[in-house]
Every structure is written in C-alpha cells, then in structure tokens.
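Z., the sequence and structure:
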Amino acid sequence: MSAPKPSDLAFVPFISVENMMRLLHRIGIPDALTGLAAYIEEDFRRWELFDKTPRVAAHSSDGVIELMPTSDGTSYAFKYVNGHPKNTRDGLQTVTAFGLLAEVATGYPLLLSEMTLLTALRTAATSALVAKYLAPEGADTMALIGNGAQSEFQALAMKAVCGIAHLRLYDIDPKATEKAMRNLAGHGFTLTACASVQEAVEGAQIITTCTADKQFATILTDNLVGAGVHINAIGGDCPGKTELHRDILSRADVFVEYPPQTRIEGEIQQMPEDFPVTEFWQVVTAAAPGRRNDRQITLFDGVGFATEDFSALRYIRDRLEGTGFYQALDLLADPDDPRDLFGMLQRANDGAA
C-alpha cells in the first residue's frame, strides 16, 4: 500500500527572504511601513487581550538568542531572533530572525516566515507610530545616530508616517554614514552627513539612536538634549546595553512597550525599579497623556515587543493571498486517522519498497 499524500493542512505557507523582498516591492516599501504601523496600532488598542511575557533570552559573551511569544486568544505567534554585534566583523548580520503564526483553536501553524527583513520594517514602523503620538507638532527634521542596518528603515518609516523630510546622519564609522546617504538618495530627503553627535542633533525635533554595541554606552549626553524634542532610543535592547546618559531619563517623560521587559533591557535599566514610565498602549487608547506641551521631552525606550511581531505576521499573511510569493512546506505530519501516526510512517516505508 502506498503512503497517503499529505493533507492540505500539512502544508504551511513559507515566505523566504527572496519572496519577502518580492512581496514588499509589490506592496511598495512606504505603503508596507504605513500598513505595518496601522496593524501595530490596532494591536496596541487590543493590548489587554494579549498574553504578555518578557522574551526568553539566552545571553552569552558573543550576543543573545531570544524567543518572543504572544497570543490574542485566537492566533498565536512567536519569533526567533538573535543579536550578535560582533558578527559584522565577519561579514555576518547582527540580527537574524524567523517567525510563525498559528491558530489557537487547533494549534496548527498558518504561516512560517523570514523575519530579518520583517523585523527591520516592524521596528521602524513602531518607531514612527510612537513619534506620530509623541513628537512635537510639525516635526520635519530627524537626527539619525547610528547608520547601520536599521537606519534606512527608520528614516523611511518616519517619512511615510510622520512626514520627516530632513535627515542629519552620524555614525562613529563614516563608511556607515556614506552607505546610508547612498541608500536614501532619491527618497525625498534632504540629507546632511555630520561629523559628531552634537552636529547631528542641531535643529532636530526627533533624535533617533540605533547603535549596536552590546555595552553600556553614552551615545547621547544630557547637554545635547534641548526642550521639546522627541527621542527615539531603540539601540538598547538587552541587559548591559544602553545609549543615553541617565540624566536625560530624569528630565524626560519615558514611554515603553512592556515595563517588565524594558526594565531589564532598555535605557531604564539604569534607573531605580520604581522609576515612572508610561506604557504606550495607554497613550494609543487615551488612557494616559502623551505629549502635553511644546517644551516637554518625550522619550521612547523601545526594545521591541512580541505583539509587534504578531502584528507584522498578521499584516504579511493578509497581503500574501493571490501573490504566489510563498512556498507550501510539507511541515506537519497529518495522517487521515489522527490516532495512527505510526501507521502513516510504516506505510511510507512500504511505499518505498
């Protein structure tokens, strides 16, 4: 007797890096960023429905490997992601990722996807969404400090969602700034390469820090931060890794995704456990104020949270139908008789003979 063919449920759509790039270009990168921001905003409005836990992290002297799970009761998602700043020395990515979306009712996967590109997009979309709520009115200039793999995504999201038109770029490595300037040319920005952090922040209403070194660092000092700015601090994302002087935190109103995670990984790991913060979902739902006046310093201590990956996987799945930009993976053993898994295995050998 020949082995039975896999059922339809055995096949799970898989989006490879190649197909993700094809899908993003089909959508258009600005539209993908605004679409992702809308899905992330929708899920922040549903915040109380989600299972929430700090990501499960395995730290080493080389970097970190993490799992990020969450569920809204109907769908479940997780992401595998690493952060290894030393990788660039060997020509490797600092961050790589993949993720899965599943149905809670059956536990069956619905989508398996690359998430290295998708994480870059969702991180930028989250930053821009937060800036939409917290940046000063009419902000059109951003300082972009750290011009690595995330920088162009941050810039394009801020343009698509918030209307940022002027970028002032600085990186300790001038080649990184040259790369970012080259990649962002032709995207409608006025670009200025700066020789220092101080020069970069001059005239900027939004300051984004996205550096990669896994260490306590002071990329931005208190004397460089004037009244009325919004700071988008996204580089600090694990214990022992920060970018801002603690005096900036003391002067700012700090907004976070999920405090139990951010207090471990974010800029506020420098502060006492009772340091006051506002959860961003409360701003989205009007349960707490965001920007109150034009002198206020707002600071988003962004470390990335699982609901944002959940939103990103939902968005991509909804855009996949009819494109053909995926492979059907025979991922699940799903025998005709669910009690006869061994029989399915045995019949496969009989068929081979």
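The CA atoms of residues 102 and 110 lie 5 Å apart. The mean pLDDT is 94.

Let me know what you think.
H.
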